UniProtKB/TrEMBL annotation:
Belongs to the hemerythrin family. It comes from Desulfuromusa kysingii. PANTHER family: BACTERIOHEMERYTHRIN. Keywords: Iron, Metal-binding. This is Hemerythrin. Residues 26-137 form the Hemerythrin-like domain. It comes from the Bacteria. Pfam families: Hemerythrin. GO terms for molecular function: metal ion binding.
Length: 141
């Protein structure tokens, strides 16, 4: 999907485990890809920076986040998920936070990128483990 294919040589900032699974193949695969992008961003800021274009990775993260959120929200709408509005609100808050970073951050500032990475790791892991897991049982019924 347009990113470096040498993952086996790179550090993993976030490691996918089955505890993140929402028991939906489409959403799990999207979550895995988001984690892959975040790991690529981590490697672009902490590894051999010559192999990565940080701005390109951030752009891919932004694009794919949009794809994922729209997919997830549509699936939740289709099953009449009772917490859809609050789930969408959480997504919106995260999008605004990423937008502010993407628009104001100098992609070469390691300190800013480290703060962005910390935010992304905390937000995505907590969101998947807590908020997304709330709909797992609802999707299966």
């Amino acid at each position: 999907m347009g990113l470096n294919n040498k993952e086996n040589e790179k550090a993993e900032f976030i490691i996918w485990t089955e505890k993140y699974s929402v028991e939906n193949t489409v959403l799990d695969n999207q979550h895995k890809y988001l984690i892959k992008i975040i790991n690529n961003l981590y490697n672009g800021t902490h590894g051999d920076e010559g192999q990565y274009n940080v701005k390109t990775i951030i752009d891919e993260l932004w694009r794919y986040t949009d794809v994922h959120l729209k997919t997830e929200e549509k699936m939740l709408q289709n099953i009449n998920y009772h917490q859809l509005d609050s789930h969408i609100q959480l997504h919106g808050e995260m999008v605004e936070k990423i937008k502010s970073w993407n628009l104001t951050s100098d992609c070469n500032e390691k300190e800013e990128l480290t703060a962005l990475l910390d935010f992304l790791k905390k937000w995505w892991t907590n969101h998947i483990l807590i908020e997304d897991h709330k709909y797992v049982e609802f999707m299966q019924s």
